[in-house]
Model the fold of this input.
Amino acid sequence: MKLNKTAFGLLGACILLAGLLVFSETARAHCDTLNGPVVQAARKALETGTVTPILKWVRSEDEPEIH
Done:
């Protein structure tokens, strides 16, 4: 009887995991779209001809590449 409960629990866990994998969707954030803040800053930089709007997205260790 204990084996049946264990097998049933394991089967249930496998079905739940399979369901989560099959029906899961890719996580998306507004930052990943063309309406996100990085793209908006890049558009503004292109319109104005200056890189100032996008400098806030540059990490400090990457600053030497810009200078």
User: Anything to note?
Assistant: The chain has two helices and no strands. The mean pLDDT is 85. The chain has one domain: 2-65. Residues 2-65 form one domain.
